[in-house]
Amino acid sequence: MIRTIMMALLVLQGLVFALPAQAAGFDNSSWDALLKQHVTSMRGGQATQVDYAGLKAERGTLKKYLDNLRRRPCGFR
Question: With bands split at pLDDT 50, 70 and 90, how would you rate the model's confidence at 69?
């Protein structure tokens, strides 16, 4: 379970930060809220700490976001 969440986080991080949210035309606010609540910056931004138990508790929110992202057409004009 934690491995699945971790992999989803890595994939989403690449997707979300590769393109600006406005250019993608997609609402990333739920993802942003999850990151702000469960990821803590450490050592002046050189490392992060993830609250995996907290993410697991919000599995429904993460699943809904991933489902919406999955429904997006590939490619941007």
Answer: confident
Question: DSSP readout, the chain?
Answer: -HHHHHHHHHHHHHHHHHS-HHHHT---HHHHHHHHHHEEEEGGGTEEEE-HHHHHHTHHHHHHHHHHHHHSPSS--
Please report, to the nearest 10 degrees, the dihedral formed by the alpha carbons of residues 51, 28, 69, 6 taken in order. Answer: -20
Domain residue ranges in the chain? 2-16+27-71
Q: What is the pTM of this model?
A: 0.59
Is-contact 49 40, C-beta < 8 A? yes
